[in-house]
Amino acid sequence: MPIIKVENLSKVFGKNTKAALELAEAGKTKEEILKETGSTVGVNRASFEVEPGEIFVIMGLSGSGKSTLVRLINRLIEPTTGDVYIDGENLAKMDKKELRRVRREKLSMVFQRFGLFPNRTILQNAEYGLEVQGISKEERTKKATKSLELVGLGSYLDQYPGQLSGGMQQRVGLARALANDPEVMLMDEAFSALDPLIRKDMQDELLDLQETMKKTILFITHDLDEALRIGDRIALMKDGNIVQIGTPEEILMNPANSYVEKFVEDVDRAKVLTAQQIMKRPETINIDKHGPRVALERMREAGLSSILVVDSKRVLQGIVTADEANEARKNEVKNLSEIIQRDVPTVEKDTPLHDLFAVIHDSPVPLAVTENGKLLGIIVRGAVIGALAGEGEVNEHA
Amino acid sequence: MLNFMENIEALPVADWTSNFVDMLTDTFAFLFDPIKDGLGDVMDLITSGLDAIPPVIFILLVAILAFFMTGKKFGLAVFSIIGLLFIWNQGLWDQLIDTFTLVLTSSILCIIIGVPIGILMSKSKIAQSIITPILDFMQTMPAFVYLIPAVAFFSIGVVPGIFASLIFATPPTVRFTNLGIRQVSEELVEAADAFGSTGAQKLFKVELPMAKYTIMAGINQTVMLALSMVVIASMIGAPGLGREVLSSLQRAQVGPGFVAGLSIVVLAIIIDRFTQNIYKDKSK
């Protein structure tokens, strides 16, 4: 069951909301509607579902309505029409008291400019969500300290936000959002105000945290690289509309329309594509069954100068070259294990293309792609270059 | 054409106002009298309390307070000692205490009335659009005009002086409270809301603490305006340094007038620096 369910959610800024909505439904653009009614369509009939534990990224340029959308979800902005279900409860129809309860217990938010209270210490900031719930001083200090330790700020409890760097301040923002143990975290351009190196660290840290916390995260960003890096699924927005929802691969490989296409055209494919997506089916021989003679035969058939060796469970054992196999055959060596080279250049299936260059550029033999030691495929240099050029087939559902 | 106004009778605004004030005086006499007595008693209490402190000790206390409030600097402390000794030396100590009581009481009342109104203004656009012109009116109407209904309501003495000061000095506190709360960054307000704060929690935990420097600037203005009413209020019988200035004026005595005026300046500077330092952002 999805934990967040958004149905036909719309927001019109301005007076003539009804007319604007009707025009939006009729497919008029944002500018046309503004001209006719004087109202701005912030979000137009957004619908999506987010599963528990998922990182769902809403991505779009400024003015696309992504920040409005996230604020509609916790009702910092009142929706014009539509429903928002969190854990089965419809936020859009709640009274203030109910809304406050859901905000306290199930939702929390991380802000672009951190949103820390400058007059409160780091600890007091992290405690805020618990404090407004009326939780005892002792308990909230314990919980807030724990979540600050989680983000690596355990020794800064009594500092003030102004004394910390941007990256550290946003960790406080993260700790504050984690302290009341919400089910859903809304992150509004949480890393956009940080410089690129720190941003990358924070992304990694978020992914690490997510490994253990398994929160549902709704992440807003204008940075496609960031979206592709951390998103399990991505919703692309333009002019208040959700243009496409899909996994990073789906969006890159099958852009829904020319807008998305244009958007992804500049993406550094080297960071997105993984070894698994560009590998080829490997030619192998079985160390338990075959000898040098079979190895030579296979290589001759496939036109190769070397061949990978696996065992019966397809666990990679090593590589045998044609020269060595020939030698072995002459010397009447029966067993492959005597001529096998054990150190084959190997990468895990999730390795991004970007990291393959260093391995492949001085390797005389193809790279082996493995998962827990089992051989999945091979990568030759040509495949890497082809993938970078955006050509060549990429394995679907990899 | 030019004489066209002569053919129209003057609107009886003055009469309306007089009648209105008379009506108020009659209707609310049951309210004005207790206020006058109560406030008068409170002020007598403050004055006699302050009078009970020997001037030397009073001056020392002020100096010590000044020293610590300005971050252990000697400037204000030294100035306070010299200035207050001068006033004592001129035989104006009792007048100083009377004036101080008047300023203190009216400032506190201004804050008690002004801050909540400012909060109301910051929360409601309608309240803001109604209250803003009233504040403009209160500040631009010559302060002497308030003395007339003040006397009608409370007869003469110190209480009508406070009433006039209230009208004249409250607007800055209201304006700055409103401004301070509206200036709190939107993201902080959103953060307070997003974590499920009630309206009161948001106000007391986020908005007022964030707005306090701005509000203090407004309060500082209010105190200064209340002090500037001291001379005007003496026209309706409020005691203190103002009365000295007034009587010097009436008798054309330059010397005593200057001394009393200088004493007011000394008091103004001390009060101004004190209120500025109460909530000065030490980290800036």
Automatic annotation (TrEMBL), chain A:
UniProt topology in membrane: Peripheral membrane protein
InterPro entries: AAA+_ATPase, ABC_osmolyte_uptake_ATP-bind, ABC_transporter-like_ATP-bd, ABC_transporter-like_CS, CBS_dom, CBS_dom_sf, Gly-betaine_transp_ATP-bd, P-loop_NTPase
UniProt domain CBS: residue ranges: 278-338
UniProt cross-references to Pfam families, sorted A to Z: ABC_tran (PF00005), CBS (PF00571)
Entry annotated with the keyword Iron: no
Localization per Swiss-Prot or TrEMBL: Cell inner membrane
Keywords on record: Amino-acid transport, ATP-binding, CBS domain, Cell inner membrane, Cell membrane, Membrane, Nucleotide-binding, Transport
EC number(s) recorded for this UniProt protein: 7.6.2.9
Record-given protein name: Quaternary amine transport ATP-binding protein
Main subcellular location: membrane
Domain ABC transporter: 4-264
Quaternary structure note: The complex is probably composed of two ATP-binding proteins, two transmembrane proteins and a solute-binding protein.
GO BP term, example: response to osmotic stress
Superkingdom per UniProt: Bacteria
Reactions it catalyzes: a quaternary ammonium(out) + ATP + H2O = a quaternary ammonium(in) + ADP + phosphate + H(+)
Molecular functions per Gene Ontology: ABC-type quaternary ammonium compound transporting activity; ATP binding; ATP hydrolysis activity
Family assignment from sequence similarity: Belongs to the ABC transporter superfamily.
Keyword Ubl conjugation on entry: no
GO cellular component entries: plasma membrane
From TrEMBL, chain B:
Membrane association type: Multi-pass membrane protein
Domain ABC transmembrane type-1: 96-275
An MF annotation (GO) of this entry: carnitine transmembrane transporter activity
Transmembrane segment boundaries: 52-69, 76-93, 99-122, 143-169, 223-242, 254-271
Record protein name field: Glycine betaine/proline transport system permease protein/glycine betaine/proline transport system substrate-binding protein
Species lineage: Bacteria, Bacillati, Bacillota, Bacilli, Bacillales
Subcellular location: Cell membrane
GO biological process, one term: amino acid transport
Record family assignment: Belongs to the binding-protein-dependent transport system permease family. CysTW subfamily.
GO cellular component, one term: ATP-binding cassette (ABC) transporter complex
Keywords, ordered alphabetically: Amino-acid transport, Cell membrane, Membrane, Transmembrane, Transmembrane helix, Transport
Organism: Terribacillus halophilus
Record InterPro entries: MetI-like, MetI-like_sf
